[in-house]
């Protein structure tokens, strides 16, 4: 073993704690502090009364013990008490290099050998930051598109969130199933179908060269345009016929009775009755959309373990409603509709089944929840859905709890804020969305132009260069959408999203590629970066210690991101890591360092930074290039 200065007990404890943030490396000091109070002041302290915080940057130290909570038990001035504890720790722990007292704060600096051993442990951990299987299953549902329009920017935030959260949960030891529930039925689907039937003239994706989901989405816009015309004409007729009626009531009546809307409603009725002609049209247009979705998902670099379709699930909830009635949890009104009373729980009465026996949205969700649990008996179920559905998921979870579903407590609604444009909300029916395919193509174009301007890929083959452009484009886009706390609404600024400088995905990718080049040179020079080679590096620079501290914090950040379902925590960590490494690289020489042990340590720091940065990027669904 390299570090003979460590006592056997402290070494064993330290090895267990190396995967936690810096302040937790200080936990072995707690029993000694308790002993100090007992011997010097005849005071019994519980270990739970002692906690540390990271030392503020303006003071020297790694961790800080706040003295003020102990003053009631010990009749000492805070400075004197802090001095006494510091001296006692110095006598009993060789891993403490020095301490200083600032009023009621004891700032402790660890010996450099602690950080060298920390780096060695990180280097010897192959899957650093990844926990072993915990025996728990979790299902993450994301994307959930409608088949009447292509994927757009709003979908991209949903998809990237879901995919990243699934990665993060997997890294925390969960068995994860990623699922997609496609909304492939309903009045909005029939609107696109009717518009195509009336105005499509038999065109297809093949005949037009238009991607299938885009072609179908175009007809959703056509329906809205033509329906507005029809509604305006009907309103004009109403105004002539009923000149003395309330204008707002007439407008509402015209909107409800628009001929096109009534036709769409009739088409939905025929679809639900299984009309062969309508079902055939529905299947044809949906297949166009699925082919388009699959192509976009592939561009995004995301996937699913299973896809559910609303057309197969929307009737399932009726059996659940009957179960709730039999148990006395639900009730029928005089018109035959079924409801659940949640007023005692601070909510309201919720409709579960219409008077005519048809399902509502939550009916389907109740049945689908049972279906998903039968397929994958999970302890947690994460629904990635926008915050406009907050109430819906409160009701869904509460109903399933009342029904006694074992999985109900594990339901979590990952509620995220909408993505808006500077001009306001996106509206698919008006064609004012930022299309996912168009945005990806634009990002790739900009990545191509800016990379060529740098002139650093002249030796790339054409296919390799194009792969790099796509990698950079998706890195920039994913990072932009994931770095913001999911709960916050986002304003999409196209110029900012494709900025390849500063706090961006491309900066992180460039940092990884830069380190990969350093490591290639180290191999060429034969620099040994193993722990044995840097074990004698006992005088570390502040930049080196800071970088080791950031690396040591990674597993806790991964755990926090899973606890909060927040990829933004990983994004912030990756940026912090890249900046910290960049400072070291700018201020300390690697290959011109005359001390062999320090040279090995800096190469090892580079290798571990690349390892952890690549791991963090993978959790975000971002690829880390080996060269740029």
| Distance linking N and C termini | 39 Å
How does the overall form come out from the CA principal axes? globular
**Which whole number gives the mean pLDDT?**
91
Rg, Å, rounded: 31 Å
| Number of DSSP helical runs | 25
The residue ranges in which pLDDT falls below 50 over 5 or more consecutive positions are: 1-20, 426-431
- Measured by DSSP, the beta-strand proportion falls in 5-15%
**Estimated helix fraction:** 55-70%
In this structure, how is the largest beta sheet organized? Answer: 5 strands, parallel
- Structural class from helices and strands? alpha/beta
- For the biggest β-sheet, the strand order reads 7-6-5-11-12
Instruction: Say how many strands there are.
Output: 14
Secondary structure: elements and pairs:
Layout (H helix, E strand, L loop, with lengths): L7 H10 L4 H4 L3 H13 L10 E3 L8 E4 L11 H15 L3 E7 L2 E6 L1 H12 L13 E5 L11 H19 L3 E8 L4 H13 L5 H4 L3 H30 L5 H10 L2 H14 L3 H25 L5 E4 H4 L3 H10 L3 E3 L5 E4 L7 E5 L7 H15 L4 E7 L3 H13 L8 E6 L2 E2 L15 H19 L7 H21 L7 E2 L2 H4 L7 H21 L5 H4 L7 H11 L1 H11 L2 H21 L8 H24 L9
Parallel strand pairs: 5-6, 5-11, 6-7, 11-12, 13-14
Antiparallel strand pairs: 1-2, 2-4, 3-4, 8-9, 9-10
Question: Would you write up a description of this structure?
Answer:
The radius of gyration is 31 Å and the shape is globular. Strand 1 (52-54) and strand 2 (63-66) form a beta hairpin. The chain is α/β, with parallel strands linked by helices and 628 residues long. It has 25 helices and 14 strands. Helix 3 (29-41) packs across helix 4, helix 5 (112-123) packs across helix 22 and helix 24 runs antiparallel to helix 25 (596-619). Among the domains are: 8-110, Arginyl tRNA synthetase N-terminal domain (Gyrase A, domain 2), CATH 3.30.1360.70; 186-308, no CATH class. Strands 7-6-5-11-12 form a five-stranded parallel beta sheet, sandwiched between helices.
